[in-house]
């Protein structure tokens, strides 16, 4: 397992969650809001898929959950 790769993905997840939180504060419900949510969700899913082979599903879920919980 490449710890630097895991650390990098973890940081990207944290940044993505923070960007989502900040972005949602400024968006009203509507098509832009829904597109924003879809894009952020897709990116987080991609980071999760990259983490799974490195650290397993359980740990990847934990990282994603903690990062998103901290921002929302």
List the helices and strands and how they pair.
Elements: H1 3-26, H2 31-55, H3 57-71
Helix pairs in contact: 1-2, 1-3, 2-3
Word description of this protein:
The protein has helices spanning 3-26, 31-55, 57-71. The model has no long low-confidence stretch (mean pLDDT 84). The protein has 72 residues and is an all-alpha fold. α1 (3-26) packs parallel to α3 (57-71) and α2 (31-55) packs antiparallel against α3 (57-71). The radius of gyration is 13 Å and the shape is elongated. The chain has one domain (3-71).
The gist of it:
The protein has helices at about 5-25, 30-55, 55-70.
Major sheet: none
**Beta-strand fraction estimate:** under 5%
Radius of gyration: 13 Å
Order of helices and strands: HHH
As residue ranges, the low-confidence spans are none
Mean pLDDT rating: 84
**Count of DSSP-assigned helices:** 3
The percent range for helix content is over 70%
Shape: elongated
**Number of strand elements:** 0
Terminal CA distance reads 30 Å
Q: How many distinct folded domains?
A: 1
Question: By helix and strand content, what is the structural category?
Answer: mainly alpha
Characteristic terms for this protein:
72 residues, mainly alpha
